[in-house]
Amino acid sequence: MADLFDRIERDMGPLGKYASVAEGYYIFPKLEGQLSNRMKFNGKEVIVWSINNYLGLGNHPDVRAKDAASTADWGLAYPMGSRMMSGNTEMHDVLERELAEFEQKEAAVLVNFGYQGIMSAIDCLLTRHDVVVYDSGCHACIVDGVRMHSGKRFAYQHNDIESLEKHLESAKKLTDDTSGGILVISEGVFGMRGDQGRLKEIVALKEKYNFRLLVDDAHGFGTLGETGMGAGEEQGVQNDIDVYFATFAKSMGSIGAFLAGDKQIIQYLKYNMRSQIFAKSLPMPYVEGSLLRLRMLRSMPELKQKLWDNVNMLQSGLKAAGFDIGYTNSCVTPVYMKGSVEEAMKLVYDLRENHRIFCSIVVYPVIPKGMILLRLIPTAMHTAQDIEETITAFKAVSIKLKELAYQ
Question: pLDDT, tens digit, for every residue of 98-124?
C-alpha cells in the first residue's frame, strides 16, 4: 500500500510544478497600495489590469466610509452563527429584497462566497434522477458543483447551440425513463474569453426540452444591460432565467453573492443549501457595505458609462493595432498571442519590469498549448493615458515575440 502523499511528491499538478520558479511573481504575486488603476508591484508603480473592480466601488470614498463605520458599529463577528439558527438580521433581509427587486425576481438569498454558493446551489437543486447540461467553458466553481452530482451530466461545446441541443435530446430520453428533470447551466459572461453566454438561443429551447436554466452572471452583474441588471437584461431574457446567480466580488468590490428566482425556489434553496445551513452568517459590515454598493450601482449610471467608455477605447485600440481579442462582447478583454509557456513568462516579465503593465497571464493547461492569453479587466478607474501606454507596450512585446526574442 502506498503512502497517500507519495503521489503528491511525484506530481504537484499542472500549475504547482512551476511553483519554484513562478511563485511570488507569476503566481501569487503581491500588488500593494490602495485599489486603483495604478498600484505597486515589486516596488514599482504599474498600470493594473487584473482587478475585477469594474465600477471602482471597491475603493470609493463613500463605500470606504460605510465599511469603516459599519465595522466600528458591529465588529466583524456580528451576527454569530448560521442564519437559520442565530445569524439572521433585518439588514440581511433588506439586502435580499433589494437584490430581488433589482433583478426583477420574486426573491433572493444571500450566500457567503461565490464559489461555495454556486457549488452548493447546484448540489441542492439536483437529485440522482436529474440530468445537468452545462457549457464546457463554465468556471471551475460550476464544474466542481456538477462533479458533486450523482446523476448524469453532459458538457456541451462552448456556446454551441447545436451541441447543446444534441445533449438535451439525450437528457430528455434519460429523464423520460427516470422521471427526473433537466438543469441547463451557462454563464452570463465567460470570464476568460469575455463572450456572453448565448442565453437568448438557450431560452428558445426551453419549451421543446422542458428544462430549467441557471445562469452564473458574476461578470455581467452591474456591467451589462441598460440598468446594469446583467446579461439577461442585455439579451432581453431576464424573465426566462429560472435561477440567477451573481457575486459581489466583481462590480461591487466586496465579499458575498446571491441567488434570485421565484419565491418557492429561493425558499427551497434557503432551507436546503448545506453550505449556508452549516456556515456562519455573512458579517454585518459586508451586508451593510453591499447594500450601499447596490444602491450606488443603481443610482449612479455614470459609473457604468465610464467603465464602458474605457472598455470601448481599449478594445477598439487593440483591434486597430492588429491584436486578436477573440469574440468578447463584455468588459473582459483577452489578447491572444502564440508562444510557449517559457516565452509567455519572459513576455510578462518584460511587460511588468520594463513597461510597467500588470495583467494576468493564462497558459496551458487552461488554454491549448502554444497559446498565450493576456487578460485585461478595464474598470471605471482607468484613464485614456493608461490605455494608450498599455497598447504601446503590447505593440513592443508583440514585435519581440514574433522576432523570437523571448526564446
Answer: 999 999 999 999 999 999 999 999 999
